[in-house]
């Protein structure tokens, strides 16, 4: 089946430092899956951070970036300078092209020290 | 504002009791989903629906039923709750096309504890 593996948390980073959360995927039933990063802030539901549906493309939002790399089956999340407000749980996910189902990684808890 | 809401937000149930979790969406999306999220696991799909009257089994449907009486509402039913069903449950809605192609929009979650 399909699966997503991401950096195991918790991850602690000081404010203004750079961040990378690794994500690799295995899509046995989907040739070119859609890839997503979702974020869950404390007390809230998941919300979409960014998505990329074409291999080789980069998505960006709120200073975060991720590039869809089909060769390495990776979709790492990066930010050059984190803020305390970025403290949250980040989920990498892959989906089919009909948008029916998402497969999630286990989530990476990020704590940014002020 | 379009949204996905869940009720209750917190629930304590007894083993063997019946639990119903409710979800309402104002996104006018065709598809709705129920997930559970446990430590060490990503969100796992329990049931989903393509529209009113339809329910489909997800990856972990055992012990759960679902009901989609209307476009807006999607319920998750635990007929005989067990402690292993203690978890945080998320509802989501989504559509196949349009601006938000393939995205899912999530509710705030329901924390269920089965004693």
Write the layout of secondary structure elements.
The complex is a heterodimer of chains A (114) and B (115).
Chain A: E1 3-6, E2 11-14, E3 19-21, E4 23-26, E5 34-40, E6 46-52, E7 58-61, E8 64-67, E9 77-79, E10 88-95, E11 102-104, E12 108-113
Chain B: E1 4-7, E2 10-13, E3 19-25, E4 31-37, E5 43-49, E6 56-57, E7 65-67, E8 73-78, E9 87-94, E10 104-106, E11 110-114
Parallel strand pairs in B: 2-11
Antiparallel strand pairs in B: 1-3, 3-8, 4-5, 4-9, 5-6, 7-8, 9-10, 9-11
Walkthrough of the structure:
The complex is a heterodimer of chains A (114) and B (115). Chain A is mainly beta and 114 residues long. Chain A is built from no helices and twelve strands. Chain A has strands spanning 3-6, 11-14, 19-21, 23-26, 34-40, 46-52, 58-61, 64-67, 77-79, 88-95, 102-104, 108-113. In chain A, strands 2, 5, 6, 10, 11 and 12 form a six-stranded mixed sheet that branches. Chain A has a four-stranded antiparallel sheet with strand order 3-9-8-7, with no helix packed on it. Chain A has a two-stranded antiparallel ribbon with strand order 1-4. In chain A, β7 and β8 form a beta hairpin. The N and C termini of chain A lie far apart (40 Å). Helices cover 0% and strands 49% of the residues of chain B. Chain B contains no helices and eleven strands. In chain B, strands 2, 4, 5, 6, 9, 10 and 11 form a seven-stranded mixed sheet that branches. The model of chain B has no long low-confidence stretch (mean pLDDT 93). Chain A binds chain B through residues 4, 34, 36, 38, 43-48, 51, 53, 91, 93, 95-107, and chain B through 4, 31, 35, 37, 40-45, 48, 50, 58, 90, 92, 94-97, 101-109.
């Amino acid at each position: 089946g399909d699966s997503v593996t991401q950096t195991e948390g918790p991850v602690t980073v000081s404010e203004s430092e750079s961040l990378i959360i690794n994500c690799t995927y295995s899509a046995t039933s989907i040739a070119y899956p859609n890839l997503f990063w979702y974020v869950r802030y404390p007390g809230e539901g998941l919300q979409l951070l960014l998505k990329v549906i074409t291999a080789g493309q980069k998505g960006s939002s709120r200073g975060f970036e991720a590039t869809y790399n089909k060769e390495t089956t990776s979709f790492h999340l990066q930010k050059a300078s984190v803020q305390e407000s970025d403290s949250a749980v980040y989920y990498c996910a892959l989906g089919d092209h009909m948008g029916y189902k998402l497969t999630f990684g286990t989530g990476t808890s990020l704590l940014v020290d002020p | 504002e379009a949204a996905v809401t869940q009720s209750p937000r917190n629930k304590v149930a007894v083993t063997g009791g019946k639990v119903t979790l409710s979800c309402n969406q104002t996104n006018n999306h065709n598809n709705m989903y129920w997930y559970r999220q446990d430590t060490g696991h990503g969100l796992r799909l329990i049931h989903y629906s393509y529209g009113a009257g339809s329910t489909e089994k997800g990856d972990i449907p055992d012990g759960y039923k679902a009901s989609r009486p209307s476009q807006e509402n999607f319920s998750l039913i635990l007929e005989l709750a067990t402690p292993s069903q203690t978890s945080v449950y998320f509802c989501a809605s989504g559509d196949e096309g349009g601006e938000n192609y393939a995205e899912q929009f999530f509710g705030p979650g329901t924390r269920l504890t089965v004693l």
